[in-house]
Design a protein that fits this description.
This protein is mainly alpha-helical and 135 residues long. It has helices at residues 22-29, 33-41, 58-72, 77-90, 101-134, and strands at 19-21, 48-50, 53-57.
Amino acid sequence: MTLNASASGHAEPGNGANSYTIGDLAREFGVMLRTRRFYEDRGLLSPRRDGTARIYDARDRERLSVILKGKQLGFTLTEIRAMLAEDRAGGTPSLNLNLSLDQVEDQIRHLEQQKMEIEEALIELKARRTTLAAA
């Protein structure tokens, strides 16, 4: 949902800039308010304040989208923060995951290793379940 929001979350005619309340972003991205506050505490998002209300602009919305895509791809918040910092330093108007081939290859290896470890853990747990169920 895109709107020009006031502190109450209602559209302000003639504002011109896209603004979002914390609730707007919660609905759009399906993330809890607590999650966005966590990202704010970590310096990944910086909405402006209007009294006690947080007002996010289009860049904050785009940053949240990048953060969530980075998390989906298995990157840590530290890695995502570095990607966002590189993007800001480059002055790129559009945020995205500017990944190098090396970063992609490293992440694939990392996720494949995690997958293998999860599969091994599942095998062990299922074997223990079978043993416990038979007892």
